[in-house]
């Protein structure tokens, strides 16, 4: 499965691979992990966005999120837990 964020839909594209998917006869194989490209609007709240893509990413155990080009982290507002 491949995923790429376009607008508010999830569609296909990926570049990361992940070992661990099982095929019908229980043989392990390398599969591509999803890569998400959220829009600026979708990424206004990154944690909310991650919750949105969680059901797809959990199937792979890993995913890549490429933030919009204009995304900047404001250290002054960042919460450290």
State the gist of this model.
16% of the residues lie in helices and 28% in strands.
Task: Report on the architecture of this protein.
The chain is of the alpha+beta class. The protein has one domain. The chain contains 1 helix and 6 strands; from the N terminus they run βββββαβ. The strands form 3 sheets. A two-stranded antiparallel ribbon has the order 1-2. A two-stranded antiparallel ribbon has the order 3-4. It is elongated. The model is unreliable at 5-9 and 11-19 (pLDDT under 50).
Tell me the layout of helices and strands.
Blueprint: E1 4-6, E2 9-11, E3 16-22, E4 28-33, E5 35-36, H1 46-58, E6 64-65
Parallel strand pairs: 5-6
Antiparallel strand pairs: 1-2, 3-4
Counting DSSP E segments of at least 2 residues, the number of strands comes to 6
Q: What is the count of structural domains?
A: 1
Alpha-carbon distance between the termini?
A: 33 Å
Low-confidence stretches: 5-9, 11-19
User: How large, in whole angstroms, is the Cα Rg?
Assistant: 15 Å
List the main descriptive attributes of the protein structure presented here.
elongated; two-stranded antiparallel sheet; two-stranded antiparallel ribbon; 81 residues; alpha+beta; 1 helix
